[in-house]
């Protein structure tokens, strides 16, 4: 298809879609009309039934918890796929040193950066844990908390350099955390099955509303999501960072190997 | 809660759990443990789904509300699985196909063993969920898990071509996913629910409602993109040609066909009350199905890259299934389901047999491989048998399905158009495979000379795998297809259909054979043998035959030129496809 024909055909398609689009748009519920029946029902029922104040978590982990299992494993598949493609494409010949663009100077890390990272890193980590733990009470939850936790790992690289980051953030550990988190979610679903109930039925005590430990089984599921997301994002960050390493053939100067962590 | 109810979530949960365990333990597992666990899980899933199918046939379809969220008056909040006999039966077949593909792949992925197995297990779980769910959004979730796993598996060999193929696949199918999500949003805006039953009631109340029709069109486009129906089929050949053979087995044998299965399910379980959806299905998609069958057949016939040949033949066969669904008769739908399983068995086998060639002979070019397959003649025998089955031989499950599809043809001109396109599609694809079997394993056909040196990439799959281990799953799958008597297949399909399509029990009667149904398979087979014969014995047949074949060459060359491999073109075609739906629905 020639580059000229392409936009012409696309315009033709748009022209043909337009009347149908218009009819659908006119028939949709009006802007600002009452919110969806689903949301109304959830808001009316769940605070009473599950004693949680974050309705998004209640939908994610309880009412439609089975969707969340699917999404959890979708993330797992995406991470596994990223690892497969990046690691395979990269090969095994990566050196410890960072890849360099010719002629660009390596600037040593400033003390201020090290200091800020050492202060912010642990706090970011704790904040991630906080967001994850308070999933039932305040906005946030395992997905968000897990991502924050994984990002805090990146501050180790920024503050301590590549070598230390690789020493502290180990790939088999991340894999184990990711797999164990996903497994925990599945195990939470199976618990009620052993009690003769449906998969994912909320069998644990619900606690009191606005409490960190409200929501019953949702707490366990949320913990599983936190682990899986933290492990998964950690793995992806690790793979992305490895992409920045020089190949062994590029490392001519052996000194570079030691100072490479400044790259 | 009966024992059967307890089993309902396990076809999905079991492979997910095994996948998570394999990921968590990773390299600490003994060498072949991930593969063995994968095969065991796939077999267990096949068994579980088969038990569910059987149980539902006897005791009615169970409805399993996750988390115990049963509908309350006026509002359905929870997600349900409804393993009716047909859906669970398809799910059982998928488990079996995965087990066969994983046995075939034994030793293939030693370098990245656990990652490959994790992805395959998630792929399997997603397909099970896709088949068993009765919730629109949950369907979308499993559709996405399936896609994400498939994208990574396609690009597996990391060559330029495989990454390009995976990228085309990813872009086109992700666009489909977005349209699906938009469509689900439209349906939800009107129905206020996601559960199939609840939505069906709302659709029935809505009548001629543009929002519902818009939702149906968008969801259909997404599912038909996965099913590689014209003009959404462009990604398929690119992806199938470059994916590792065990993955192509799953793609052609189950992923693409269950796109069509999902579409059929949505059409009969969610939108039967919408007259506009019915008109699109019976009018527009009937014609599109016929066109897909013919175009797929022509393109398959014109290939010399064996994986592309099989990929295009899959498009043709899915087109035939779509005509069965679009004929809007229960018999046609039953036929499409039986055809889906039979086709999956045969096409899965054929992709494995091409995988054998890739492993043993390091090539997939038909002309290049001429006569080189003589020493692995058992593979040749199986290829020949599979070609005959694909070409309509009146034997086994695939034939049973084809028979029912053909019996569902409407009266008059439309019916003859359908018969003709099914016949052409079947004969061309069967003939193409037969031609390749004759050329590669018997060394028939004219010496290609310089033409053999095709500008193809260097392609080889992991060698040194035992031949018997690669052929055993082929024999198993073909054996199942052949040993199921066609009339039994017909009766089973008709028996499982009422619960799938919400019809009264016993309302689907297998029509008595007519003169045409007796003649059609033989005509198709004759056509397939003729197509192969003309290509292989060019010098010894009357000269008029090759000349007649040559007449189609410009058409086929034109069709081939449309498959540019340029993603921009594919997106434009997709937009034109959406426009086709929109125009049909509006005017």
UniProtKB/TrEMBL annotation, chain A:
Location in the cell: Cell membrane
**InterPro entries per the UniProt record, alphabetical:** CPA3_antiporter_subunitB, MnhB
Q: Which UniProt keywords apply?
A: Cell membrane, Membrane, Transmembrane, Transmembrane helix
The cellular component terms of Gene Ontology attached to this UniProt record, alphabetical and capped at eight, are:
plasma membrane
Q: Which domain of life is it from?
A: Bacteria
Which parts of the chain span the membrane according to its record? 73-89, 110-135, 141-159, 180-200, 212-238
Taking every annotated instance into account, which residue ranges of this chain make up the domain Na+/H+ antiporter MnhB subunit-related protein? 115-233
Specify where it is mainly localized: membrane
Membrane topology per the record?
A: Multi-pass membrane protein
Q: Which family does it belong to?
A: Belongs to the CPA3 antiporters (TC 2.A.63) subunit B family.
Name the chain's protein: Sodium:proton antiporter
Automatic annotation (TrEMBL), chain B:
Presence of keyword Cell membrane: yes
User: Pfam families annotated for this entry?
Assistant: Proton_antipo_M (PF00361)
Compartments annotated for it: namely: Cell membrane; Membrane
- What is the organism of origin for this protein? Lichenibacterium minor
| GO molecular function, a single term | NADH dehydrogenase (ubiquinone) activity
Q: How does it sit in the membrane?
A: Multi-pass membrane protein
Q: Which family does it belong to?
A: Belongs to the CPA3 antiporters (TC 2.A.63) subunit D family.
Stated name of the protein:
NADH-quinone oxidoreductase subunit E
Q: Which GO terms describe its cellular component?
A: plasma membrane
Q: What is its main location?
A: membrane
Enumerate the InterPro entries for this protein.
Answer: CPA3_Na-H_Antiporter_D, NADH_UbQ_OxRdtase, ND/Mrp_TM
Positions of transmembrane segments: 6-25, 37-57, 86-109, 116-133, 139-158, 170-191, 211-237, 249-268, 280-302, 309-331, 337-359, 379-401, 413-434, 467-486, 521-537, 570-586
Keyword Transmembrane helix listed? The answer is yes
Using the record's annotation, list all stretches that form the NADH:quinone oxidoreductase/Mrp antiporter transmembrane domain. 134-420
Q: Which GO terms describe its biological process?
A: ATP synthesis coupled electron transport
Keyword annotations for this protein, in alphabetical order, are: Cell membrane, Membrane, Transmembrane, Transmembrane helix
Q: Which domain of life is it from?
A: Bacteria
């Amino acid at each position: 298809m020639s580059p000229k024909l392409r936009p012409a055909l696309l315009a033709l398609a748009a022209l043909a879609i337009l009347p149908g689009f218009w009819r659908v748009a006119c028939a949709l519920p009006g802007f600002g009309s009452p919110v969806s029946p689903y949301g109304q029902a959830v808001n009316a029922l769940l605070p009473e039934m599950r004693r949680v104040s974050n309705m998004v978590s209640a939908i994610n982990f309880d009412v439609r918890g089975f969707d969340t299992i699917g999404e959890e494993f979708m993330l797992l598949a995406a991470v596994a796929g990223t690892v497969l493609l990046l690691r395979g494409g990269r090969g095994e010949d990566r050196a410890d040193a960072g890849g360099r663009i010719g002629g660009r100077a390596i600037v040593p890390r400033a003390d201020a950066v090290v200091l800020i990272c050492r202060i912010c890193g642990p706090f970011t980590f704790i904040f991630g844990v906080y967001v994850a733990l308070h999933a039932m009470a305040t906005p946030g939850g395992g997905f968000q908390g897990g991502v924050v936790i994984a990002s805090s790992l990146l501050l180790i690289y920024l503050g301590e350099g590549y070598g230390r980051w690789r020493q502290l953030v180990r790939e088999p550990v991340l894999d184990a955390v990711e797999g164990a988190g996903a497994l925990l979610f599945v195990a939470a679903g199976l618990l009620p099955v052993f009690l003769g109930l449906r998969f994912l039925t909320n069998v644990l005590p619900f606690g009191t509303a606005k409490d960190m430990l409200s929501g019953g089984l949702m707490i366990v599921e949320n913990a599983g999501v936190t682990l899986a997301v933290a492990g998964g994002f950690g793995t992806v960050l690790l793979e992305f960072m490895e992409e920045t390493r020089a190949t062994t053939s590029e490392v001519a100067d052996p000194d570079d190997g030691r100072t490479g962590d400044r790259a | 809660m009966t024992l059967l109810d307890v089993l309902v979530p396990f076809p999905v949960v079991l492979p997910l759990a095994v996948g998570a365990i394999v990921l968590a333990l990773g390299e600490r597992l003994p060498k072949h443990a991930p593969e063995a666990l994968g095969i065991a899980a796939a077999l267990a899933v096949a068994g579980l789904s088969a038990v569910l199918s059987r149980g539902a046939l006897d005791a009615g379809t169970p409805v399993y509300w996750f988390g115990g969220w049963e509908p309350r008056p006026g509002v359905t909040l929870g997600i349900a699985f409804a393993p009716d006999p047909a859906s669970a039966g398809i799910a059982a077949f998928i488990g079996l196909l995965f087990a066969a593909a994983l046995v075939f792949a034994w030793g293939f992925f030693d370098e990245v063993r656990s990652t490959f197995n994790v992805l395959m297990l998630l792929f399997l779980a997603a397909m099970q969920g896709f088949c068993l769910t009765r919730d629109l959004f949950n369907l979308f979730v499993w559709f996405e898990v399936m896609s994400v796993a498939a994208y990574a598996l396609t690009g597996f060999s990391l060559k330029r071509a495989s990454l390009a193929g995976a990228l085309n696949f990813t872009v086109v199918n992700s666009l489909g996913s977005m349209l699906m999500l938009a469509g689900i949003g439209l349906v939800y805006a009107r129905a206020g629910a996601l559960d199939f039953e609840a939505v069906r009631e709302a659709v029935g109340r809505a009548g001629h409602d543009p929002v519902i029709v818009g939702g149906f069109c968008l969801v259909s486009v997404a599912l038909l993109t996965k099913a590689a129906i014209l003009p959404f089929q462009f990604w398929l050949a690119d992806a199938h040609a470059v994916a590792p053979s065990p993955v192509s087995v799953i793609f052609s044998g189950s992923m693409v066909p269950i796109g069509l299965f999902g579409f059929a399910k949505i059409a009969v379980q969610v939108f039967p009350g919408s007259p506009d959806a019915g008109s699109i299905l019976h009018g527009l998609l009937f014609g599109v199905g016929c066109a897909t069958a013919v175009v797929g057949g022509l393109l398959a016939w014109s290939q010399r890259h064996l994986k592309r040949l099989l990929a295009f033949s899959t498009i043709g066969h899915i087109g035939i299934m779509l005509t069965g669904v679009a004929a809007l008769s229960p018999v046609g739908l039953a036929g499409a389901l039986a055809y889906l399983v039979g086709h999956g068995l045969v096409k899965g086998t054929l992709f494995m047999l091409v995988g054998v060639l890739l492993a043993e002979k390091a090539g997939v070019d038909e002309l290049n491989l001429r006569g080189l397959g003589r020493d692995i003649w058992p593979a040749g025998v199986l290829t020949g048998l599979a070609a005959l089955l694909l070409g309509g031989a009146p034997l086994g499950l695939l034939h049973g399905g084809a028979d029912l599809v053909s019996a569902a043809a409407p009266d008059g001109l439309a019916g003859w158009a359908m018969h003709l396109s099914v016949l052409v599609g079947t004969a061309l694809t069967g003939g193409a495979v037969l031609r390749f079997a004759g050329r590669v394993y018997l060394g028939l056909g004219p010496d290609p000379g310089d033409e053999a040196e095709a500008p193809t990439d260097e392609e080889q799959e992991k060698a040194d795998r035992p031949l018997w281990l690669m052929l055993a799953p082929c024999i198993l799958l073909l054996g199942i297809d052949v040993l199921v008597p066609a009339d039994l297949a017909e009766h089973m399909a008709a028996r499982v259909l009422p619960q799938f399509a919400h019809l009264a029990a016993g309302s689907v009667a297998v029509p008595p054979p007519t003169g045409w149904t007796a003649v059609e398979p033989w005509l198709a087979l004759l056509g397939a043998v003729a197509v192969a014969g003309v290509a292989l014995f060019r010098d010894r047949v009357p000269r008029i035959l090759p000349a007649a074949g040559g007449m189609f060459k410009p058409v086929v060359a034109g069709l081939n030129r449309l498959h540019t491999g340029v993603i921009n073109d594919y997106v434009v075609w997709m937009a034109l496809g959406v426009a086709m739906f929109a125009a049909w629905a509006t005017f």
